[in-house]
Amino acid sequence: MVLPGGERHELRGGAVVGAGATPATSRIAYAAAHVVADPLAENVPGAPAALDWDATLAFRHHLWRNGLGVAEAMDTAQRGMGLDYPAVRELVRRSAGEARSVGGRIVAGVATDQLDGPASLEKVLDAYREQLADVVEAGAVPVIMCSRQLAAVASTPDEYLTVYSALLSEVDSPVLLHWLGPVFDPALAGYWGSMDLSVATDVVLGLLKDHSSKVDGIKMSLLDADFEILFRRRLPDGVRMYTGDDFNYPDLIAGDEHGYSDALLGVFAAIAPVVGPALAELDKGSADGFHALLDPTVPLARHLFGAPTQYYKTGIVFLSWLSGHQQHFTMVGGLQSGRSVTHLARLLVLADEAGLLPHADLAAARARSFFAVAGVPQ
After folding, report:
1. What is the model's pLDDT at position 17?
2. Model confidence over 304-331: pLDDT tens digits?
């Protein structure tokens, strides 16, 4: 095929098709799954999301078959970028039911995105409570996500602690917390009440210490490996670190003499057939085998999550289409326009080099059609 700029590339296809895996025993690993839009619906900017439920749920079964848990209704599913809360509620309900049918792990995001307009702390807390109840009723483990609405109304650490402490005091079983950095969502700058990372760190660690019995772990998505390691070493006993670092995940998961990170990653949705076998190497005590499988996926991940990072979802869906998990490259909110043709062409090459396109002929045919429509003659 011909890529932008006139470069030619012949796809070699993936060597990992049908790999499959059982869940790892040495690490817990969740893939944050995307949603598949209904291509014939009005999935335009500002419109309610309309999903292709069969394809959306089939992708979750793909993740479970590859030994991964599903992190549902997280950022990868376009929370705050096209996926409205009525669709979120239905998504969590359906996915949790599918998880029960196969014994798969599932966690699901709890946020405050049903709120419209300015909100008080009490309204934010009530919105969290509503979504928390929906996730618990569905049968998924809640992940309490960062809230744009809370970031807009809270100005001090104490105001954040008021909301989070109330939630954690009310839950009956352990939940996950999520610290999403402004690289993923600029609206979250200064979360936890301070632009000073050391101050925010003390706030979060204090919260975890006070409610350690209610927190299974914290997902950290700051794309700062050194900071994650230092934070990980200060966690209260029994509280896990779930890395959300899509740049440095192999080293963070492999760990060091002081510990390791479990994983809740968007990139795992794109590289699922490699992750299961890689984690199996860790189960056997082979860090070298783990790195040999997972390290070649890092160039793909770093490009996929390149700035502006919040548009990585476009690349996730592009790769899902090329890999045959869905029949089109359409996203809710029209977000298929979130990355340039040049960016997606490079993503295609990196995925092929990492052996992540299982059906070369299918991927090539779809890529040629995409580039032709984009103005790159084939």
Report:
1. 43
2. 999 999 999 999 999 999 999 999 999 9
Tell me what pLDDT residue 117 has.
82
Question: One-letter amino acid identity for 16?
Answer: V
Q: b or e along 294-330 (b: 16 or more beta carbons within 10 Å of the residue's beta carbon)? A: bebbbebbebbbbeebbbbbbbbbbbbbbbebbebbb
Question: What is the DSSP secondary structure assignment for residue 22, as one 8-state letter?
Answer: P
* Dist CA 252 CA 261 (whole Å): 6
The SS3 of residue 215 is: strand
- The phi and psi torsions of 235 (rounded to 5 degrees) equal -65, 145
3-class SS of residue 31: strand
CB of 356 closer than 8 Å to CB of 325: no
Q: Is the pTM of this model over 0.90?
A: yes
Q: For residue 103, what are the CA distances in angstroms to 70, 279, 373?
A: 11, 19, 42
Paired with 265 in beta bridges are: 31
> DSSP labels for 263-314?
EEESTHHHHHHHHHHHHHHHHTT-HHHHHHHHGGGHHHHHHHTPSSGGGHHH
Helix axes 121-138, 157-170, angle to 10 degrees: 30
- pLDDT reading at 15 higher than 70: no
The CA distances from residue 21 to 61, 62, 316, in Å, are: 12, 11, 21
How far lies 283's CA from each of 53, 58, 67, 286, 356, in Å? 34, 27, 13, 7, 23
Query: How many Å apart are CA 331 and CA 115, to the nearest integer?
Result: 23
Contact 327, 294 (CB under 8 A): no
